[in-house]
Specification:
The complex is a heterotrimer of chains A (195), B (198) and C (223).
Chain A lengths: L4 H9 L12 H7 L3 H30 L8 H23 L1 H7 L2 H4 L4 H12 L4 H28 L12 H16 L9
Helix pairs in contact in A: 1-8, 3-4, 3-7, 3-8, 4-5, 4-7, 7-8
Chain B lengths: L2 H11 L10 H7 L3 H24 L9 H23 L1 H15 L2 H11 L4 H31 L1 E2 L2 E2 L9 H4 L2 H18 L5
Antiparallel strand pairs in B: 1-2
Chain C lengths: L12 H53 L3 H6 L3 H6 E4 L8 E6 L2 E12 L4 E8 L5 E9 L13 H5 L4 E2 L1 E2 L2 E2 L3 E3 L9 E3 L5 H22 L6
Parallel strand pairs in C: 9-10
Antiparallel strand pairs in C: 1-2, 2-3, 3-4, 4-5, 5-6, 7-8
Chain lengths: 195, 198, 223
């Protein structure tokens, strides 16, 4: 592939933002974006997991799945790798950085089912990325996700909840805001970096 | 709760999409055409039924520490089974569903029902709960895609409905429209359906 | 002091054993199903591919033999075996086909690769024997966004390329993308609304492959 990892990194943040362009990773994004701090914490954790699992799954695909001709198991294998990594991360954080563990709370296991992470692993297989490209793509996607969730949290914080109709508070208005952001990000698609 | 109650609660009162805000990713991706929504919905219902049943079946033997990994494995396996079955016996449907199969695995509804219900309840009840959740989800998809396909393409299930002079609403073709329609749906449901709860 | 034996279920090793057994069961079932259906899937894929090739050649065959186009298509696989021969063209490592009636080639089909927004795409193109004109186009593999870019597979889009003279003076002509609703003039292609990149990818794919094919095969006789 001709795209340098550096360009891929930036593209993953802006022009192919995993959340606003590919619409992956919505569930935790909508629920967690109430507070800016937890959003930042989750976003950083997601970025870390994304980068690591992108690399791990690339290795697993190249050195285990392909040689043994079991590519059709990639769905299961990838998600198990992600689940195992998150589990491991949880244990490490709990042991060495307990303060972080308590502030992240339930959000750590939530990362396992974040479709953005799974999606990134699938994409790097489909698009035939090299190891470095995968890492860059994973890191960029993570930061893109972080960016999106911070934006939403920031906006929700500024938004006077009282002005929002009762039925629309919470999920409803988050969806509308995200929709507008997604429309705005379509403007980036004129920059054909990752095509 | 009776079996019927389990189903109704899972499909409507505690609907996975508009109440629990789960399964959003796929809701945005497949709702451009009603046919895609239907196929995706059926796929999810089928996988939900099988996975909730199985997870409930072995719940007594599943250790806490590997609970999520086990659920992930089971859900993933059933999704791939559905994919293989489709590829072999309904190849045209499989081509339509192709990109979405991966989306079913990470559909938070599957993990959600497994954790919230199947891990603590009997197999048959769990399966009904799973099917209910799937039906509720499919309903949401169909409503959104009804609007999007009608206004964006002028067709329903591929059948031309709008007259000749109809100008397609381009925004309905693009994914952000699903955000807005879903938001409106949630608003309407919160205002009218849950009125008694307020 | 605890004199009772810890039940197996609460030992440390149980979770590991559990996961291993669970994995073996499920992966085993999957492997079984996969291999049981592999052949069926392969056969289907090959048949679909051949049907597309036949469909692309049918108009040309109909013109040359006077047979009815629909009859030719429905007579698969006999008609395929009768008319379509696999050949090779210079510089091509992908399959290509040709139909010859009375010892002269009336149409060729080439398998060309392309790159879309999400992933690779592939198309089969029926071209005139001298490789300068597209007879009919069939995009048979693409992973563009369903409802948007994926609409390049719709008949109306692909029909725009039918009987299109694409090589003039040894070079691929310029094709301009215009909006879906506009009236089309020569040298223009209606794109899919909201899918400029996917639409453009089709044109790039055709240009790259057909230009190269034309350049490499105009010297000397072709098989």
């Amino acid at each position: 592939m001709g795209i340098t990892p550096f360009v891929l990194f930036w593209a993953a943040i802006f022009t192919s933002n995993i959340l606003l362009t590919n619409f992956l990773g919505m569930c935790s994004y909508l629920s967690v974006s109430k507070e800016v701090e937890s959003s930042a914490g989750l976003g950083i954790a997601v970025t870390f997991v994304l980068t690591a699992t992108a690399g791990l799954n690339w290795l697993v695909y190249k050195y285990i799945l392909v040689p043994f001709h079991i590519e059709y198991l990639q769905f299961i294998v990838f998600i198990i790798v992600i689940a195992a990594f998150v589990q491991l991360l949880e244990l490490i954080i709990e042991r060495y950085v307990p303060a972080l563990y308590y502030s992240l709370g339930i959000f750590l296991p939530l990362i396992t089912v974040n479709c953005a992470i799974f999606g990134v692993s699938l994409f790097l297989v489909i698009r035939n990325y090299s190891f470095l490209q995968s890492i860059a793509f994973g890191a960029g996607s993570g930061i893109g996700w972080l960016l999106a969730i911070l934006m939403l949290a920031g906006i929700r914080n500024r938004l006077k909840e009282k002005l929002v109709p009762a039925g629309l508070r919470g999920a409803g208005i988050s969806l509308v805001i995200t929709g507008i952001m997604a429309l705005a990000f379509i403007g980036f698609s004129g920059i054909q970096a990752v095509q | 709760m009776t079996k019927k109650e389990i189903f109704v609660v899972s499909a409507f009162k505690d609907n996975s999409v508009w109440r629990q805000i789960l399964g959003i990713c796929s809701t945005l991706a497949v709702t451009n055409l009603m046919l895609n929504s239907l196929i995706m919905g059926l796929g999810v219902i089928f996988t939900l039924a099988l996975s909730t049943f199985t997870i409930s079946l072995i719940r007594e033997y599943t250790p806490r520490s590997v609970r999520m990994m086990a659920q992930t494995l089971i859900i993933g396996a059933y999704v791939i089974i559905v994919d293989i079955l489709l590829k072999a016996w309904l190849p045209d449907v499989s081509k339509q569903l192709g990109p979405y199969v991966g989306l079913i695995i990470t559909n938070c509804i599957l993990m959600g029902r497994a954790e919230a219900f199947a891990a603590q309840n009997k197999p048959l009840d769990s399966m009904i709960d799973g099917i209910g959740a799937g039906v509720g989800y499919t309903l949401v998809l169909l409503v959104i895609s009804f609007i999007r396909e009608l206004l964006g393409f002028g067709t329903l299930f591929g059948v031309r409905v709008m007259g000749e002079g109809w100008i397609n609403w381009s925004i309905m073709v693009m994914a952000p429209s699903a955000f807005f329609i879903l938001a409106l749906m949630i608003w309407a449901i919160n205002t009218y359906y849950y009125k008694e709860a307020k | 002091m605890n004199n009772e034996r810890i039940p197996f279920r609460e030992t440390l090793i149980y979770p590991i054993v559990f996961m291993i057994i669970l994995s073996i069961i499920f992966v085993g079932v999957l492997a079984l199903m996969y291999h049981a259906t592999k052949e069926k899937v392969e056969t289907y894929k090959e048949e679909s591919y051949q049907k597309i090739v036949l469909d692309l050649c049918a108009p040309s065959i109909a013109t040359a033999t006077g047979l009815n186009e629909a009859d030719i298509i429905s007579a698969f696989p006999q008609s395929y075996n009768e008319y379509i021969k696999q050949t090779s063209l210079t510089g091509e490592d992908r399959p290509s086909f040709a139909v010859s009636i009375d010892d002269s080639v009336i149409v060729r089909v080439v398998d060309i690769p392309g790159k879309g927004l999400w992933d690779k795409m592939r198309a089969l193109v029926a071209v005139s024997p001298d490789l300068s004109q597209i007879r009919k186009l069939a995009i048979y593999e693409q992973m563009e966004t369903p409802g948007l870019g994926a609409r390049i597979s719709e008949p109306w889009f692909q029909e725009q390329f039918q009987d299109l003279q694409v090589i003039a003076d040894g070079k691929f002509v310029t094709l301009e993308l215009i909006s879906e609703k506009q009236e089309r003039k020569d040298g223009q292609i209606n794109k899919v609304t909201g899918a400029t990149i996917s639409s453009g990818a089709v044109i790039s794919m055709l240009k790259d492959s057909l230009q190269k094919l034309f350049e490499q095969n105009t010297l000397g006789a072709m098989p």
